[in-house]
Amino acid sequence: MEDQGVEVNRVVSRLATFQRLVANVVSGIGRGVSWLLLALVVMIFSVVVLRYGFNLGWVWLQELTVYLHSAVFLLAIAWAFQLDEHVRVDIFYRGKSPRHQAWVNLLGTALLVVPFSVYLFLMGWDYVAASWLVMEGSREAGGLNFVYLLKSLMLLLPVLLLLQACDTIPRCIAVIRKNQDDLSLKGA
Q: Cβ of 68: how many Cβ atoms within 10 Å?
């Protein structure tokens, strides 16, 4: 009987370690990608000044703004989800008890985030693979020849969301079972 308890503790410890790793990976990617916003603002400002102030423009520079915007959006969504800063329907959430909020988060994650992420990954795989097969580049002369890399972000989005779901679901269950008050990682 003691061996079972030791084994259960070992499994729980490994799951907690995995959960912390996932939280750190998602947070690290989100924090890192958030710095791209500064580069994006500077780049867009430069495009505007060059175009309207000096009548200069480069396709690759404009495409680079699209690449950066896409990277920020697609790679930081899981971080926003982790911090509980995503958009939600507040009529089911605001003003409710932490336990009720945990139920909403659990059901939303299990019934919406996980299936959507799996579907997006499966549907996007062939699309991204075809892009890699031809090493797809820009259709514009002077554009960036890395469209296949940009499209690859569409597969990283569901992977990061699924990883975050692996962290969110146990947190929700812990709040539901133990009546804990804190579900978010805002202080982490």
A: 18
